[in-house]
Amino acid sequence: MNSAxxxxxxxxxxxxxxxxxxxxxxxxxxxxxxxxxxxxKWWLVAFGMIGTSLxxxxxxxxxxxxxxxxxxxxxxxxxxxxxxxxVAFVLLPLYYKMGLTSIYTYLDKRLGPTAYKTGALFFIxxxxxxxxxxxxxxxxxxxxxxxxxxxxxxxxxAIIILGLILLYTFRGGVKTIVWxxxxxxxxxxxxxxICVGYIMNVLHLNISSTWTAMQDKGYTKLLTxxxxxxxxxxxxxxxxxxxxxxxxxxxxxxxxKNISVSNLKDSKKNMIxxxxxxxxxxxxxxxxxxxxxxYAGAKGITATGDNLFPTIAMSSALPFYITLCFLIGLISxxxxxxxxxxxxxxxxxxxxxxxxxxxxxxxxxxxxxxxxIVHNVFAVxxxxxxxLFRQFDNGSLIDIxxxxxxxxxxxxxxxFAFGIFTKRRIKNELVPLICVIAPVVCYVLKQHDAEWLGxxxxxxxLLIINAGIAFILMLACSKTGNAVTHPEPATQKVMxxx
Length: 498
Hints:
Elements lengths: L2 H22 L5 H6 L6 H28 L3 H26 L6 H6 L2 H35 L6 H16 L4 H29 L4 H10 L16 H17 L2 H7 L5 H36 L8 H6 L6 H34 L10 H26 L7 H25 L3 E2 L4 H17 L1 H4 L9 H15 L1 E2 L19
Antiparallel strand pairs: 1-2
């Protein structure tokens, strides 16, 4: 394997991204950075969001789970599919009606400024941890299989990659990311299909015989019917649905791209199209996982979990073009989630925490300077988190990702649910305390679930329990009264440019 060629390909790939960024960021302003001037094409957003949602975590970790859990993860994917319909028909209409730039502005209008900032801070915490965990996984693989041979240390690799991401996002923001994500999704899906086709050909399998071979090994097991287990199918499906509602519908990174589409009708089309492609793509990743384990068994390879796909793909026994496809697919999977997260976190901090939009004395130049400072600070935070995750790597990072989401997105889900489904007014000063208490209670409960609940193990429904506890506490600390009404539709009230 020629590491020099692989490194050259990585650099050329970044060069292509920088070229697209330069072209798309011409004449950009703050409105372009935050919401792409609200003129993104729905089909472009739908396709590009695939890369954001799948990420390097899906590319590496999901295939690696098949050897131990079969198609168990697809139960969660079914839940994802249901959740996208809630996002399309409940949340998107609300965001468009209010003409939001940051979706957390809804909390300000409905519950007050403390709830607003609390929701935004929980998003910032959630997305920072999730994005850096995904980014760490890819940096680890690149370091292990490509860059170590050049004597390049892990820390230097992380700094360079984050620096390159900064270069192609700092000006164009969403306007640029809509296009770069589309390019990267294309490369990722092509790499996935090529790898599936190659392994099937080497093992002399077709679709039917592949499924039979996987069944014989127990890799196709899908539904878990024991309600006491954490992967019981109803838990997984419900948990997956609420994970989607929280991690997509209540996530500024994902919604920032959706509300950059010019109208609600097209944004709904984007979401529905996206959800069907997502289900198909996840199924193919699981299929790839089964094939990788069959291939490993045939060739005497002992790697499992997160190490399975990289070990096989970077093997010198494989044709170089497969190694190249894996590498391009991997970096194409991670950067849509990293660049989008960096942009969304910058947007949320500037709009929700600094309230930059409301500072009428700010000139466009001052706003741009503030935005760039925040953008760079978040890049440094990303770097710190990557170094920390290196200390806690247990070999299956997708489990860590779902646990993080369950703890950090629960309060956010409760805040929006309380605002949408009740007319009550909450004591604003108690919101931060409630949003901290709920995850802490859930953590303690999770540590003792089997002991306290008669052998019952909490799985992905932890997010629902977390949100439920926070919601009940909000009800207990609220009173009847006139809820803050939504402002008139954006078609009647023109939002001021940023």
